[in-house]
Amino acid sequence: MFFYLRNRSVRIIILGFVILSIYMYYRTTVDSYNNFIEFVNTSNFSSNRELQFDNVTVELSFMLLQKNTSFEHPVTKSSISHNANNLSISTSASPQSILLINNSISLQVNNSNITSALPLKLLVTNSSFATLIHDDTARAIYQGGHDVTVPEKCPMNGKNMNLVIVVTSAPSHIEARTAIRQTWGHFGQRTDVSIVFILGTTNDHKLEKLLQYEQKLYADIIRGRFIDSYNNLTLKTISSLEWKDTFCSDAKFLLKTDDDMFINVPRLLSFIKAHDTETNVIYGRLAKNWKPIRNKKSKYYISLEQFKQKVFPDFTTGPAYLLSKDVVHKLYEAALDQTYLKLEDVFTTGIVAHKIGIKRIHVSEFLNKKISYNPCNVQRGISLHMVKYGEQFDLWKKLLDGKSKC
Ligand SMILES: *[C@@H]1O[C@H](CO)[C@@H](O)[C@H](O)[C@H]1NC(C)=O
Ligand SMILES: *[C@@H]1O[C@H](CO)[C@@H](O)[C@H](O)[C@H]1NC(C)=O
Ligand SMILES: *[C@@H]1O[C@H](CO)[C@@H](O)[C@H](O)[C@H]1NC(C)=O
Ligand SMILES: *[C@@H]1O[C@H](CO)[C@@H](O)[C@H](O)[C@H]1NC(C)=O
Ligand SMILES: *[C@@H]1O[C@H](CO)[C@@H](O)[C@H](O)[C@H]1NC(C)=O
Ligand SMILES: *[C@@H]1O[C@H](CO)[C@@H](O)[C@H](O)[C@H]1NC(C)=O
Ligand SMILES: *[C@@H]1O[C@H](CO)[C@@H](O)[C@H](O)[C@H]1NC(C)=O
Ligand SMILES: *[C@@H]1O[C@H](CO)[C@@H](O)[C@H](O)[C@H]1NC(C)=O
Ligand SMILES: CC(=O)N[C@H]1CO[C@H](CO)[C@@H](O)[C@@H]1O
Ligand SMILES: CC(=O)N[C@H]1CO[C@H](CO)[C@@H](O)[C@@H]1O
């Protein structure tokens, strides 16, 4: 996010009123307390991500809100220098220096350093005006690409494929993956179906060793560039979309599902056959009128800054949803520009899909819940949730059981 000065004669950029909010710990020898600094600017600008910075002198003007007091610091003739990942802005007034390193900001105020890890981005209107804002989009935290890609799972970019299933899993869920491979995962052997797992990274070296062995045996695991955790589930979905877009863009449909699901692949393939020509659509179990939880103690807490409205757009629930191939690329791109939410289904199939006008359609066969496992239920549904290791085999048997009259 750098800014190229087209007009070299323009030596002064007005790095105007700036929006940025950071919680900081300002430690003094006497005490230690929480300060709240906010750079305020109400206007927003279109962003240009291919900006380049040169060493320039800028005029800075911002508001510093500290606890309950607010005061303005007009700072003039500061300098901006940039190298590779670093952008630093230093000023002569208080705060004396603002240092941005790899998306984190560090302010020097009264000779004490204050650091915040909030991602920031510089938005530039034109060659002489820029604003610095807190970047809360997924793009600020998402690192593109994959460390392991298994492109062979999708020959010719999926040209002859009807369905690619990406199963989101966690590094430690080895048993769950084994159960899937030994049951419904067998359908991945068809030339028109591909089944892969996706994981993030782990610092557990022992587990990593096991994963490498597992990969050697099965070669069906994609690895994204994020720490595998609950908070990063949305990154896993974005990473799945990126993988499909990069390595399997011609496959007709993408099913995103989890490793505690039983997928009735034949039933899903019939569904796909019947909806072969549909575009711009996500099929699944539709959740309507869900409200954000505003209780800070909840695991599902959503702040007003993250999502203002009272009701989420309709979304398809996370355990399993099916995307037509044309939506994958645009969903991926739009997701990166959206304020990050860890609720992956709400974020992806709700907020982002709604914003770019992708239809979400309820299909009752996507059960996405625990049901009683009688053969008819199993044969009629496309996706069953909360399936334990042993149950995969039981369900698999019931699916194959041709005798039951349903
Ligand atoms: C910017 O300033 C730094 C430090 O003064 C200097 O090392 C660097 O070469 C300058 N960059 C440009 C493009 O002039
Ligand atoms: C601001 O002042 C109000 C009332 O005096 C007080 O309740 C509140 O806690 C203060 N906020 C901060 C961040 O100090
Ligand atoms: C960024 O700046 C820091 C501190 O000035 C310096 O140590 C580091 O080498 C710089 N990184 C790059 C990539 O230039
Ligand atoms: C910035 O990020 C790059 C790439 O992720 C890393 O190599 C570098 O060490 C980081 N620099 C600092 C100062 O953290
Ligand atoms: C920095 O020092 C000035 C003058 O002593 C003071 O008014 C200001 O509150 C101090 N800033 C912080 C963040 O402590
Ligand atoms: C503030 O940070 C800079 C860069 O990391 C360092 O050189 C300086 O010593 C720090 N100042 C204080 C007072 O900690
Ligand atoms: C650049 O943008 C700012 C803010 O929108 C505007 O006030 C200014 O006139 C613009 N300058 C030029 C040269 O277009
Ligand atoms: C992922 O989640 C962990 C823990 O919840 C967090 O520390 C990390 O910063 C997150 N983001 C990425 C990109 O790994
Ligand atoms: C609150 C504030 O200072 N907003 C300013 C942000 O920048 C624009 C563009 O110059 C100004 O017009 C606003 O007044
Ligand atoms: C002041 C300003 O430019 N506001 C714009 C912020 O962005 C939204 C959505 O892109 C625009 O609709 C506003 O006009």
Automatic annotation (TrEMBL):
It holds the Pfam family Galactosyl_T. GO terms for molecular function: hexosyltransferase activity. It is an enzyme of class 2 (transferase). InterPro entries: Glyco_trans_31. It is a single-pass type II membrane protein. The chain crosses the membrane at residues 9-26. Belongs to the glycosyltransferase 31 family. This is Hexosyltransferase. It comes from Cotesia typhae.
